[in-house]
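--- STAGE predict ---
source: upstream dedup step, 1 unique chain passed
mode: sequence only
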Amino acid sequence: MDIDGRERAILVHLRLTNADEQEDLDELKLLALSAGAEIVGVVEGARNHPDSATYVGSGKAEEIRELVAATQAEVVLVNGALSPGQERNLEKAVAARVLDRTGLILDIFAQRAQSHEGKLQVQLAQLEHLSTRLVRGWTHLERQKGGIGLRGPGETQLESDRRMIGERIRMLHKRLDKVHKQRVERRRARSRSVIPTVSLVGYTNAGKSSLFNALTGAGVYAADRLFATLDPTMRRVELPGQVTMILADTVGFIRHLPHGLVAAFRSTLEEVQFADLLIHVVDASHPDHLEYQEQVERVLTEIGADSVPRLTVMNKIDVKNEPPHTEMDSLGDKSRVFVSAKTGAGMDLLMSVLSERLAPHRVQAVVRFPIKEGRLRSRLYSWGAVLTETVDGDDLVVTIELSREQCRWLAEEQGAQTTFPLSA
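--- STAGE serialize ---
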């Protein structure tokens, strides 16, 4: 470990000629830097298939071992998914700790999680990842029949480790279920206020948190690192035309994001699934941005959010010296907005487009309710919904402009007599 506390790491990248998709070495470098590693060497190679014993093969393992000795590296980061056996065998072959891509992402998640729920989710994902290594890594002990001289502590320790991990996993599931129920109640409360929710999605490091800060002034942590944001952050944003939205920042997506992590971070992903609109943030300056967009779309399909309406925001136009502008889709709707969250260029344009996208949900209606319902009257004024107000006996008759959902909420949950104009 160097003087500033960073671990010295060697990166291992294999190009698998028979693989449907290749991992990206540049992305592995970003992951390693995001985890706080100092990259002291890179070993590349090519194979048709991973070696069943060590993933890289004996010759490449010896090359890694020599580089570990020469650089005094403490960890070897492999750009792929290792089986427990491959991980164990490679560690022996290179005489250093080995971490595959999933383990590396888990480590970054463990560093980044800030909320109580986020920390629970990371612990759960780490333990479930560890449990497969524990079980598979010690299966040779299960074959021992307990003969003379074979009744050592190994099998007992294995069972103890399994039980402790299993109990911890069950406890975490129980605690997360409780938090999940609380989150569902909060979402119901938000739905009763019927302010549309807009979620930021995109490939990790696309600039979602920077865009969130530019729109809200929230000061959310944003850095040129992968997975800078893990815990969902929500803020109310006032848009032009008296349109209000709740904006949610979310975890960045990445190629081949481990399924366990997709399942674990359901709090962030549910905000995406139940959003009224998704802002797909794209790093327009990245040469692979089209491929990254496809990866995000795959994850959205996987979590059941592929039917949620989209608005694509092409971020970082300052890198390409491109002016802010919009592009239309085949139906004539503004589908892409080009901005720079860093410089603020195009932010007014984006807020205007968001207002246009969310405003069509608003209709005018006439609402009648008793004057004594002061809370309801205050709620309408807080929404900026009141156009006119008159008194008719003991009732207030108010002309409002709200979303259809808000009007229905008034009629169904508040018992207010609501009349929609014919144009609605």
